[in-house]
């Protein structure tokens, strides 16, 4: 497993590309949007410099990592030699299925196809391809270069060989992996969405301020980040899509907090728009 293609250069895609290239994979980062690719390149360059300045990596690692990444709008060229493709686009099933059908046609026969999803079904995605045994979900966490976990979710037809190969990839990326049998929301998203949604209900009901809710979770329950801070980081639109999917598949306890829906309608999506449960520069 030497060549990885990442489809989608947003927050998660660029993070996955960064970590992969840093750990000696040859990476093609693909996106249909030139501006998104430019932003991803700028982000990776800044993060590498920051990590070198702080002593987390050596100065020679910066150029080596950048030389390991190719930025491209051409999907066919990006995946033609890929051992693994990691899709990192929006959490919309129709879009993911469309991309996986294309990947199935364009990729070599041996290529493993992974979706970076926090809720969606790898079984449903894999069923749209001719290689469901080589389809798996790799749930990375934001920010990718700091978070240690990859949640590996097996679809109904995912082979154990595929799981083992992706575990090896995770180890080379210096990540820990957990193996999960597919069920809506997997492990982390089900727990995280419930905690975040209840924090939003507390805020809506006036029980405490956003700052004090987050402080209580960090100091009282030893969470590294408060649930409202985390929602802002993930993006409130992404969180709402996840909640709607879990509500649809798992029932009433996952009904999105009305305050979350209101913020998204107002365009207050968190860090990426400068305003969410907190204000950002």
TrEMBL record:
Pathway: Lipid metabolism; butanoate metabolism. It comes from the Bacteria. Residues 3-182 form the 3-hydroxyacyl-CoA dehydrogenase NAD binding domain. Pfam families: 3HCDH, 3HCDH_N. NAD(+) binds at residues 8-13, 31, 91, 96, 118, 142, 272. One of its GO terms (molecular function) is NAD+ binding. SUPFAM superfamilies: 6-phosphogluconate dehydrogenase C-terminal domain-like, NAD(P)-binding Rossmann-fold domains. Residues 185-280 form the 3-hydroxyacyl-CoA dehydrogenase C-terminal domain. Keywords: NAD, Oxidoreductase. InterPro entries: 3-OHacyl-CoA_DH (IPR022694), 3-OHacyl-CoA_DH_NAD-bd (IPR006176), 3HC_DH_C (IPR006108), 6-PGluconate_DH-like_C_sf (IPR008927), 6PGD_dom2 (IPR013328), NAD(P)-bd_dom_sf (IPR036291). One of its GO terms (biological process) is fatty acid metabolic process. The record marks 139 as: Important for catalytic activity. Belongs to the 3-hydroxyacyl-CoA dehydrogenase family. This is 3-hydroxybutyryl-CoA dehydrogenase.
